[in-house]
Amino acid sequence: MTEPRTLGELKRGGSKGPSPRVKDEMRANLLRKLAAREALFPGILGYDDSVVPRVVNAVLSRHNMILLGLRGQAKSRLLRSLTTLLDPKVPVVAGCEIHDDPFRPICRRCRDLVAERGDETPVAFLSPDDRYVEKLATPDVTIADIIGDVDPIRAARGGHDLGSELTMHYGLLPRAHRGIFALNELPDLAGRIQVGLFNILQEGDVQIKGYPIRLPLDLCLVFTANPEDYTARGKIITPLKDRIGSEVRTHYPATLEQGVAITQQEAWTERGVELRIPRFVREVAEGVAFAARRDKKIDKRSGVSQRLPITVLENAVSNAERRGLLKGESPVVPRVSDIYSAIPSLTGKFELEYEGELMGAENVAREMIREAVAETFSVYLGSADLKGVVGYFEAGGSLKLDDDSSSAELLAQLKRVPGLLDHTQSVGVGRNDPAPLVAAAGEFVLEGLYGQKKIGRSDDRGFVAPERRETELDLERLERLRRMKKQVN
Fold first, then answer.
1. Which CATH superfamily does the domain covering 7-249 fall into?
2. Cα–chain-centroid distance for residue 179?
3. Per residue in 405-437, pLDDT tens?
């Protein structure tokens, strides 16, 4: 059955009058999804018991809402997911800039068109994506951008008086009529522009400059903001906050499992090669973000985005992919050393405090990776008897591993340490598994012992007995303290 092309065909097809208002439409569709036990916001992980119920309550209450949270907490994605609560299609007057309802037009052009052509008024249909308008707030945004202004060029071309409604230039808010309008980073919007949102939030209408006409817009308004940026980049003025119905706080993944699931969903790992990412590598990549969020050398107010473990995992996979191509190996298996190679993808993801600035971003990143490896190692091998492995190094043994070594070369090195490869089964890797996987597991055991300071590492000799490395670390710490004192004085 073809879609109606005129208002008359729309009426004959069963439409009796105006479409429901947007918030009523979203509420009705949400109630239907809840009753049918459907997934509400596909792709949004970790919020089922915290953020999602509050968003549901806001929609059921027909509230405009704001999502408050640090960077990388899926605020924009959640707002865009609200389109799943809109009807599959709604009729509009064809060619209307503000998507007027043919049964209830509000702009002068559409009112005149319906009065003139009646049932022959052409209609079109909008999808949910067509009804979502998003704007990033910046200090240079003007009232004309958001609300609208007089358009003298339109007046001249149409021969209209400047006071005519036909000369209006509609801003983003009117163009989002009968849909969802999202404004990201609200504190960045100048205070005088925030005042321009008062009427639409409270009275449901806007007044375009120079016209004594109030446009009764049908909108659901949603905003995002980083609460820690208010003093640095601006603030949400109190009267505007008072007019926003619901304030919903977002958060980072509460557990490592949630973080791993999010990163696995978002990271680009489909490279067209046979790729196997060990679970312990995923957990180390995620553990770096968790370590960063609690590290005192990193600014908590800025936050550590969930993009950090995503880019780290992608970069680690790329390093493994490069090595696999050079060595002609398959499958491609990332190692812990590949996560160290991914440091360039994480140093730009956090802001450092004074102590961190003294150490340098790369050194801080290395510390976080080491901490993440140690924690992951304790989960898999915390109770394992590794005295034999540690004893090899305490007896004077050393092992220098090349990050670009092939799996065969790496395994040949690892076999020098008595009993080392016997512990790969603790991370789910058996001796009969592909060599790249066994090599990655064996390296993880060594990296875990280093992370827990049971063995050390030297730049010239590789893995060594712990005493040597700890002495070197102590000397480095003393040297850093001397430099800090000189800078203070």
1. P-loop containing nucleotide triphosphate hydrolases (3.40.50.300)
2. 23
3. 999 999 999 999 999 999 999 999 998 999 999
